[in-house]
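Notebook, bench 3.
Goal today: get a predicted structure for Transporter from Peribacillus butanolivorans so we can plan the truncation constructs. The sequence was checked against the plasmid map this morning, with no discrepancies at the termini. Length recorded as 442 residues. Pasting the sequence as submitted so the record is complete.
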Amino acid sequence: MRPRSFQEYVQGPIQIGMGLGIISLLARWVTGTTILSSPESMVKYGVFGGIGYALMGAIALFMFSFIGRRVRQDFPVGLTMGDYLKTRLHPLGYWILLVILVLTSLHTLFIQGMAASTLCQFLFDTPLYVGLFFFFCFCVLFAGFGGLKFIHGIASFQVISMFAAAILIPLYFFVKEGIQPVYDGIRLYHPYMLVINKYDLWNFIFAGLLVGFGQFFFDLTSWHRLFMIEIKKVPLTFSLSGLIWITFPLSFSSLFIMVIFTGGFTDIHSILVGLANKITTPFIFILFILCAFSAITSTFGACLHSLISLIVANILEPFQTKKSDQQKIRMAYLLSILIGGMVFVATLFNSPTLLELLFYSGNIYSALLAPFLAIVFSKGKVANFIPISAVLAIVISYIIQPYVSDFQSIWFSGLASFTIIVICTILTFIKTKWRFFKTKLN
Protein backbone atom coordinates (compact mmCIF):
# COMPACT_ATOMS: atom_id res chain seq x y z
CA MET A 1 0.00 0.00 0.00
CA ARG A 2 1.32 3.44 -0.96
CA PRO A 3 2.44 5.65 1.98
CA ARG A 4 -0.04 8.40 2.82
CA SER A 5 2.68 10.93 3.67
CA PHE A 6 6.42 11.35 3.29
CA GLN A 7 6.88 10.95 7.05
CA GLU A 8 5.13 7.57 6.85
CA TYR A 9 7.41 6.62 3.96
CA VAL A 10 10.46 7.50 6.08
CA GLN A 11 9.45 6.32 9.56
CA GLY A 12 6.41 4.11 9.14
CA PRO A 13 3.01 4.67 10.75
CA ILE A 14 4.02 4.10 14.40
CA GLN A 15 6.94 4.47 16.80
CA ILE A 16 8.56 1.06 17.33
CA GLY A 17 9.40 -0.71 20.58
CA MET A 18 12.39 -2.77 21.66
CA GLY A 19 11.42 -6.02 19.88
CA LEU A 20 10.90 -4.53 16.42
CA GLY A 21 13.85 -2.20 17.03
CA ILE A 22 16.19 -5.17 17.57
CA ILE A 23 14.82 -6.94 14.49
CA SER A 24 15.27 -3.78 12.42
CA LEU A 25 18.86 -3.27 13.61
CA LEU A 26 19.77 -6.92 13.00
CA ALA A 27 18.25 -6.72 9.52
CA ARG A 28 20.61 -3.78 8.88
CA TRP A 29 23.78 -5.13 10.48
CA VAL A 30 23.68 -8.84 9.65
CA THR A 31 25.01 -8.15 6.19
CA GLY A 32 26.59 -9.88 3.25
CA THR A 33 29.82 -8.55 4.71
CA THR A 34 29.08 -10.37 7.97
CA ILE A 35 28.56 -13.67 6.18
CA LEU A 36 31.50 -13.42 3.75
CA SER A 37 34.04 -11.07 5.39
CA SER A 38 34.06 -12.64 8.85
CA PRO A 39 35.28 -15.96 7.37
CA GLU A 40 37.69 -13.99 5.16
CA SER A 41 39.13 -12.26 8.23
CA MET A 42 39.42 -15.67 9.92
CA VAL A 43 41.26 -17.10 6.90
CA LYS A 44 43.64 -14.11 6.76
CA TYR A 45 44.24 -13.52 10.47
CA GLY A 46 43.41 -16.89 12.02
CA VAL A 47 40.58 -18.09 14.21
CA PHE A 48 41.07 -15.14 16.54
CA GLY A 49 40.65 -12.81 13.58
CA GLY A 50 37.11 -14.13 13.18
CA ILE A 51 36.51 -13.64 16.89
CA GLY A 52 37.96 -10.12 16.72
CA TYR A 53 35.69 -9.26 13.79
CA ALA A 54 32.67 -10.31 15.86
CA LEU A 55 33.81 -8.31 18.89
CA MET A 56 34.37 -5.16 16.83
CA GLY A 57 30.76 -4.94 15.70
CA ALA A 58 29.28 -5.93 19.05
CA ILE A 59 31.31 -3.35 21.00
CA ALA A 60 30.47 -0.62 18.47
CA LEU A 61 26.71 -1.30 18.73
CA PHE A 62 26.96 -1.36 22.53
CA MET A 63 28.79 1.99 22.58
CA PHE A 64 26.26 3.50 20.20
CA SER A 65 23.57 2.85 22.82
CA PHE A 66 25.16 5.57 25.00
CA ILE A 67 25.53 7.91 22.03
CA GLY A 68 21.91 7.30 21.06
CA ARG A 69 20.61 8.10 24.54
CA ARG A 70 22.49 11.40 24.56
CA VAL A 71 21.22 12.31 21.07
CA ARG A 72 17.58 11.55 21.89
CA GLN A 73 17.78 13.55 25.11
CA ASP A 74 19.08 16.59 23.21
CA PHE A 75 16.96 16.06 20.08
CA PRO A 76 13.91 13.89 20.84
CA VAL A 77 12.14 14.25 17.47
CA GLY A 78 13.64 13.89 14.01
CA LEU A 79 13.44 11.96 10.75
CA THR A 80 17.07 11.57 9.70
CA MET A 81 20.60 12.12 10.91
CA GLY A 82 20.64 15.27 8.80
CA ASP A 83 17.92 16.81 11.00
CA TYR A 84 20.14 16.41 14.06
CA LEU A 85 23.28 17.70 12.31
CA LYS A 86 21.40 20.80 11.17
CA THR A 87 20.77 21.78 14.80
CA ARG A 88 24.40 21.20 15.80
CA LEU A 89 26.40 22.60 12.89
CA HIS A 90 26.82 25.84 11.00
CA PRO A 91 25.90 25.69 7.28
CA LEU A 92 29.44 24.98 6.02
CA GLY A 93 30.06 22.12 8.44
CA TYR A 94 26.56 20.79 7.87
CA TRP A 95 27.00 20.49 4.11
CA ILE A 96 30.46 18.99 4.47
CA LEU A 97 29.10 16.16 6.59
CA LEU A 98 26.07 15.67 4.35
CA VAL A 99 28.37 15.10 1.37
CA ILE A 100 30.45 12.61 3.37
CA LEU A 101 27.27 10.85 4.51
CA VAL A 102 26.08 10.41 0.92
CA LEU A 103 29.48 9.09 -0.23
CA THR A 104 29.85 6.62 2.65
CA SER A 105 26.28 5.39 2.13
CA LEU A 106 26.96 4.79 -1.57
CA HIS A 107 30.08 2.88 -0.56
CA THR A 108 28.02 0.71 1.79
CA LEU A 109 25.59 -0.05 -1.03
CA PHE A 110 28.52 -0.94 -3.27
CA ILE A 111 29.87 -3.38 -0.67
CA GLN A 112 26.50 -5.16 -0.55
CA GLY A 113 26.47 -5.17 -4.34
CA MET A 114 29.85 -6.94 -4.31
CA ALA A 115 28.49 -9.47 -1.80
CA ALA A 116 25.53 -10.08 -4.13
CA SER A 117 28.00 -10.47 -7.00
CA THR A 118 29.89 -13.16 -5.07
CA LEU A 119 26.64 -14.98 -4.31
CA CYS A 120 25.42 -14.79 -7.93
CA GLN A 121 28.73 -16.16 -9.25
CA PHE A 122 28.46 -19.03 -6.79
CA LEU A 123 24.82 -19.87 -7.55
CA PHE A 124 24.08 -19.21 -11.20
CA ASP A 125 25.72 -20.41 -14.39
CA THR A 126 24.63 -17.27 -16.22
CA PRO A 127 26.30 -13.93 -17.02
CA LEU A 128 26.84 -11.92 -13.84
CA TYR A 129 24.74 -8.98 -14.99
CA VAL A 130 21.60 -11.16 -15.16
CA GLY A 131 21.66 -12.18 -11.49
CA LEU A 132 22.70 -8.72 -10.34
CA PHE A 133 19.95 -7.08 -12.38
CA PHE A 134 17.25 -9.10 -10.64
CA PHE A 135 18.89 -8.49 -7.25
CA PHE A 136 18.90 -4.71 -7.71
CA CYS A 137 15.37 -4.70 -9.11
CA PHE A 138 14.10 -6.54 -6.05
CA CYS A 139 15.88 -4.17 -3.63
CA VAL A 140 14.66 -1.05 -5.41
CA LEU A 141 11.08 -2.32 -5.43
CA PHE A 142 10.79 -3.45 -1.82
CA ALA A 143 12.87 -0.67 -0.21
CA GLY A 144 12.79 2.28 -2.58
CA PHE A 145 9.13 1.94 -3.55
CA GLY A 146 7.76 0.07 -0.53
CA GLY A 147 9.12 2.45 2.13
CA LEU A 148 9.78 1.59 5.74
CA LYS A 149 6.43 -0.13 6.28
CA PHE A 150 7.26 -2.74 3.66
CA ILE A 151 10.87 -3.06 4.92
CA HIS A 152 9.60 -3.85 8.41
CA GLY A 153 6.98 -6.16 6.91
CA ILE A 154 9.63 -8.58 5.64
CA ALA A 155 12.38 -7.86 8.23
CA SER A 156 11.04 -10.50 10.64
CA PHE A 157 11.17 -13.19 7.95
CA GLN A 158 14.70 -12.12 6.96
CA VAL A 159 15.99 -12.20 10.56
CA ILE A 160 14.30 -15.57 11.27
CA SER A 161 15.91 -17.12 8.19
CA MET A 162 19.32 -15.75 9.23
CA PHE A 163 18.91 -17.06 12.78
CA ALA A 164 17.85 -20.49 11.51
CA ALA A 165 20.91 -20.70 9.26
CA ALA A 166 23.29 -19.44 11.97
CA ILE A 167 22.08 -22.12 14.40
CA LEU A 168 21.13 -25.14 12.26
CA ILE A 169 23.91 -25.21 9.65
CA PRO A 170 26.92 -25.25 12.06
CA LEU A 171 25.02 -27.73 14.23
CA TYR A 172 24.45 -29.94 11.18
CA PHE A 173 28.15 -29.93 10.29
CA PHE A 174 29.51 -30.48 13.80
CA VAL A 175 27.13 -33.37 14.42
CA LYS A 176 28.07 -34.86 11.05
CA GLU A 177 31.86 -34.39 11.25
CA GLY A 178 32.57 -34.17 14.98
CA ILE A 179 34.66 -31.54 16.80
CA GLN A 180 37.94 -33.46 17.21
CA PRO A 181 38.45 -34.23 13.49
CA VAL A 182 37.86 -30.55 12.69
CA TYR A 183 40.44 -29.42 15.26
CA ASP A 184 42.97 -32.00 14.06
CA GLY A 185 42.42 -30.95 10.44
CA ILE A 186 43.00 -27.27 11.23
CA ARG A 187 46.20 -28.16 13.13
CA LEU A 188 47.40 -30.25 10.20
CA TYR A 189 46.54 -28.01 7.23
CA HIS A 190 46.26 -24.52 8.75
CA PRO A 191 48.21 -24.37 12.06
CA TYR A 192 48.79 -20.62 11.64
CA MET A 193 45.07 -20.08 12.25
CA LEU A 194 45.47 -21.11 15.88
CA VAL A 195 48.23 -18.58 16.65
CA ILE A 196 47.12 -15.62 18.78
CA ASN A 197 50.34 -13.58 18.93
CA LYS A 198 50.50 -12.64 15.26
CA TYR A 199 51.37 -8.95 14.89
CA ASP A 200 48.88 -8.46 12.04
CA LEU A 201 46.06 -9.85 14.18
CA TRP A 202 46.39 -7.11 16.78
CA ASN A 203 46.76 -4.47 14.06
CA PHE A 204 43.59 -5.81 12.48
CA ILE A 205 41.61 -5.75 15.74
CA PHE A 206 42.65 -2.26 16.89
CA ALA A 207 42.28 -0.71 13.46
CA GLY A 208 38.97 -2.54 13.08
CA LEU A 209 37.68 -1.01 16.30
CA LEU A 210 38.35 2.49 14.93
CA VAL A 211 36.65 1.61 11.66
CA GLY A 212 33.77 -0.12 13.46
CA PHE A 213 33.11 2.79 15.79
CA GLY A 214 33.19 5.29 12.93
CA GLN A 215 31.00 3.10 10.72
CA PHE A 216 28.36 2.39 13.36
CA PHE A 217 28.34 5.93 14.74
CA PHE A 218 28.04 7.51 11.29
CA ASP A 219 25.55 5.08 9.77
CA LEU A 220 22.38 6.60 8.32
CA THR A 221 20.23 3.53 9.02
CA SER A 222 21.25 3.28 12.68
CA TRP A 223 20.32 6.95 13.15
CA HIS A 224 17.12 6.38 11.25
CA ARG A 225 16.16 3.60 13.66
CA LEU A 226 17.32 5.68 16.62
CA PHE A 227 14.63 8.31 15.97
CA MET A 228 11.95 5.62 15.57
CA ILE A 229 12.54 3.78 18.86
CA GLU A 230 10.90 4.95 22.08
CA ILE A 231 13.39 7.12 23.99
CA LYS A 232 13.46 5.04 27.18
CA LYS A 233 14.12 1.86 25.20
CA VAL A 234 17.02 3.17 23.09
CA PRO A 235 19.98 2.04 25.29
CA LEU A 236 18.68 -1.48 25.90
CA THR A 237 17.63 -1.96 22.26
CA PHE A 238 21.07 -1.16 20.87
CA SER A 239 22.92 -3.07 23.61
CA LEU A 240 20.87 -6.23 23.10
CA SER A 241 21.25 -5.90 19.33
CA GLY A 242 25.04 -5.93 19.76
CA LEU A 243 24.88 -8.94 22.06
CA ILE A 244 22.75 -10.89 19.58
CA TRP A 245 24.72 -9.72 16.54
CA ILE A 246 27.97 -11.23 17.78
CA THR A 247 26.57 -14.74 17.29
CA PHE A 248 26.28 -14.31 13.51
CA PRO A 249 29.94 -13.72 12.51
CA LEU A 250 31.05 -16.39 15.00
CA SER A 251 28.56 -18.84 13.55
CA PHE A 252 29.54 -18.24 9.94
CA SER A 253 33.25 -18.35 10.78
CA SER A 254 32.72 -21.77 12.36
CA LEU A 255 30.75 -22.81 9.29
CA PHE A 256 33.66 -22.05 6.97
CA ILE A 257 36.07 -23.85 9.30
CA MET A 258 34.05 -26.96 8.49
CA VAL A 259 35.05 -26.51 4.85
CA ILE A 260 38.79 -25.82 5.12
CA PHE A 261 39.71 -28.42 7.79
CA THR A 262 40.07 -31.11 5.08
CA GLY A 263 42.55 -29.21 2.90
CA GLY A 264 43.61 -25.97 1.26
CA PHE A 265 41.74 -23.16 -0.44
CA THR A 266 42.52 -20.26 -2.76
CA ASP A 267 39.91 -17.58 -2.02
CA ILE A 268 36.37 -17.05 -0.74
CA HIS A 269 34.92 -18.49 -3.97
CA SER A 270 36.77 -21.77 -3.48
CA ILE A 271 35.46 -21.93 0.09
CA LEU A 272 31.90 -21.41 -1.14
CA VAL A 273 32.35 -24.20 -3.69
CA GLY A 274 33.72 -26.45 -0.95
CA LEU A 275 30.72 -25.56 1.22
CA ALA A 276 28.33 -26.51 -1.59
CA ASN A 277 30.08 -29.85 -2.01
CA LYS A 278 29.82 -30.60 1.71
CA ILE A 279 26.14 -29.73 2.01
CA THR A 280 24.38 -32.92 0.91
CA THR A 281 20.98 -32.02 2.38
CA PRO A 282 18.86 -29.82 0.08
CA PHE A 283 17.11 -28.16 3.02
CA ILE A 284 20.42 -27.02 4.56
CA PHE A 285 21.66 -25.70 1.20
CA ILE A 286 18.44 -23.76 0.59
CA LEU A 287 18.61 -22.39 4.14
CA PHE A 288 22.14 -21.08 3.58
CA ILE A 289 21.20 -19.41 0.28
CA LEU A 290 18.07 -17.92 1.86
CA CYS A 291 20.14 -16.59 4.76
CA ALA A 292 22.76 -15.00 2.48
CA PHE A 293 20.10 -13.48 0.22
CA SER A 294 18.16 -12.13 3.23
CA ALA A 295 21.28 -10.58 4.78
CA ILE A 296 22.33 -8.80 1.58
CA THR A 297 18.88 -7.58 0.54
CA SER A 298 17.87 -6.41 4.03
CA THR A 299 21.05 -4.37 4.41
CA PHE A 300 20.96 -2.97 0.88
CA GLY A 301 17.28 -2.09 1.24
CA ALA A 302 17.69 -0.41 4.64
CA CYS A 303 20.70 1.64 3.48
CA LEU A 304 19.02 2.60 0.20
CA HIS A 305 15.87 3.76 2.01
CA SER A 306 17.84 5.78 4.58
CA LEU A 307 19.96 7.42 1.89
CA ILE A 308 16.89 8.38 -0.15
CA SER A 309 15.21 9.79 2.97
CA LEU A 310 18.28 11.91 3.73
CA ILE A 311 18.57 13.26 0.18
CA VAL A 312 14.88 14.19 -0.09
CA ALA A 313 14.47 15.57 3.44
CA ASN A 314 17.80 17.33 3.92
CA ILE A 315 19.40 18.00 0.53
CA LEU A 316 16.55 18.59 -1.93
CA GLU A 317 13.80 19.94 0.35
CA PRO A 318 15.64 23.19 1.33
CA PHE A 319 15.64 24.12 -2.38
CA GLN A 320 12.06 22.98 -3.05
CA THR A 321 10.06 24.02 -0.01
CA LYS A 322 6.68 23.89 -1.76
CA LYS A 323 6.78 20.20 -2.68
CA SER A 324 3.79 18.18 -1.46
CA ASP A 325 4.16 14.82 0.29
CA GLN A 326 3.18 12.89 -2.82
CA GLN A 327 5.74 14.81 -4.88
CA LYS A 328 8.42 13.95 -2.32
CA ILE A 329 7.43 10.29 -2.46
CA ARG A 330 7.63 10.29 -6.26
CA MET A 331 11.03 11.94 -5.97
CA ALA A 332 12.08 9.14 -3.61
CA TYR A 333 10.96 6.56 -6.17
CA LEU A 334 13.03 8.23 -8.88
CA LEU A 335 16.09 8.44 -6.63
CA SER A 336 15.82 4.75 -5.75
CA ILE A 337 15.96 3.85 -9.46
CA LEU A 338 18.89 6.21 -10.13
CA ILE A 339 20.95 5.07 -7.13
CA GLY A 340 20.17 1.38 -7.75
CA GLY A 341 21.23 1.72 -11.39
CA MET A 342 24.43 3.55 -10.48
CA VAL A 343 25.50 0.93 -7.91
CA PHE A 344 24.58 -1.85 -10.37
CA VAL A 345 26.95 -0.44 -12.99
CA ALA A 346 29.72 0.13 -10.43
CA THR A 347 29.39 -3.46 -9.16
CA LEU A 348 29.66 -4.93 -12.67
CA PHE A 349 32.98 -3.22 -13.44
CA ASN A 350 34.81 -3.65 -10.09
CA SER A 351 36.08 -6.74 -8.32
CA PRO A 352 37.92 -6.00 -5.03
CA THR A 353 37.49 -8.40 -2.11
CA LEU A 354 34.98 -7.52 0.59
CA LEU A 355 37.65 -7.19 3.26
CA GLU A 356 39.64 -4.80 1.04
CA LEU A 357 36.49 -2.74 0.51
CA LEU A 358 35.75 -2.65 4.23
CA PHE A 359 39.18 -1.35 5.17
CA TYR A 360 39.68 0.88 2.13
CA SER A 361 37.02 3.16 3.60
CA GLY A 362 38.56 2.78 7.05
CA ASN A 363 40.43 6.09 6.77
CA ILE A 364 37.11 7.91 6.33
CA TYR A 365 35.36 6.29 9.28
CA SER A 366 38.39 6.64 11.54
CA ALA A 367 38.70 10.35 10.68
CA LEU A 368 35.00 10.89 11.45
CA LEU A 369 35.12 9.38 14.93
CA ALA A 370 36.59 12.34 16.87
CA PRO A 371 34.49 15.00 15.08
CA PHE A 372 31.35 12.94 15.63
CA LEU A 373 31.98 12.61 19.37
CA ALA A 374 32.73 16.34 19.57
CA ILE A 375 29.41 17.13 17.86
CA VAL A 376 27.37 14.86 20.14
CA PHE A 377 28.94 15.86 23.46
CA SER A 378 29.39 19.60 22.84
CA LYS A 379 26.79 22.15 23.89
CA GLY A 380 25.19 24.31 21.24
CA LYS A 381 26.45 24.61 17.68
CA VAL A 382 30.00 23.39 17.08
CA ALA A 383 32.61 25.30 15.12
CA ASN A 384 33.29 24.59 11.45
CA PHE A 385 36.81 23.38 12.18
CA ILE A 386 35.37 20.15 13.63
CA PRO A 387 33.88 18.78 10.37
CA ILE A 388 36.76 20.33 8.40
CA SER A 389 39.20 18.35 10.55
CA ALA A 390 37.66 15.13 9.22
CA VAL A 391 38.18 16.24 5.60
CA LEU A 392 41.80 17.22 6.25
CA ALA A 393 42.52 13.95 8.05
CA ILE A 394 40.98 11.89 5.21
CA VAL A 395 42.99 13.72 2.54
CA ILE A 396 46.28 13.47 4.46
CA SER A 397 45.77 9.77 5.30
CA TYR A 398 45.17 8.84 1.64
CA ILE A 399 48.25 10.85 0.61
CA ILE A 400 50.50 8.89 2.98
CA GLN A 401 48.74 5.54 2.42
CA PRO A 402 51.16 4.33 -0.32
CA TYR A 403 54.06 4.72 2.14
CA VAL A 404 52.52 2.95 5.17
CA SER A 405 50.37 -0.09 5.81
CA ASP A 406 46.57 0.08 5.54
CA PHE A 407 46.23 -0.26 9.30
CA GLN A 408 48.75 2.51 10.00
CA SER A 409 46.91 4.89 7.66
CA ILE A 410 43.67 4.16 9.56
CA TRP A 411 45.33 4.97 12.90
CA PHE A 412 46.92 8.09 11.43
CA SER A 413 43.57 9.26 10.05
CA GLY A 414 41.87 9.03 13.45
CA LEU A 415 44.83 10.61 15.24
CA ALA A 416 45.05 13.45 12.70
CA SER A 417 41.42 14.54 13.08
CA PHE A 418 41.70 14.32 16.88
CA THR A 419 44.92 16.38 16.88
CA ILE A 420 43.44 19.06 14.60
CA ILE A 421 40.37 19.39 16.86
CA VAL A 422 42.52 19.66 20.01
CA ILE A 423 44.82 22.30 18.49
CA CYS A 424 41.93 24.36 17.10
CA THR A 425 40.05 24.12 20.40
CA ILE A 426 43.10 25.37 22.33
CA LEU A 427 43.65 28.23 19.89
CA THR A 428 39.97 29.18 20.07
CA PHE A 429 40.12 29.15 23.88
CA ILE A 430 43.25 31.33 23.91
CA LYS A 431 41.69 33.73 21.39
CA THR A 432 38.51 34.02 23.48
CA LYS A 433 40.46 34.65 26.67
CA TRP A 434 42.63 37.24 24.93
CA ARG A 435 39.55 39.13 23.70
CA PHE A 436 38.07 39.02 27.19
CA PHE A 437 41.35 40.30 28.64
CA LYS A 438 41.52 43.18 26.11
CA THR A 439 37.92 44.11 26.90
CA LYS A 440 38.74 44.29 30.60
CA LEU A 441 41.75 46.49 29.91
CA ASN A 442 39.70 48.91 27.81
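DSSP finds 20 helices and no strands in the chain. The radius of gyration is 23 Å.
Flagging this for group meeting.
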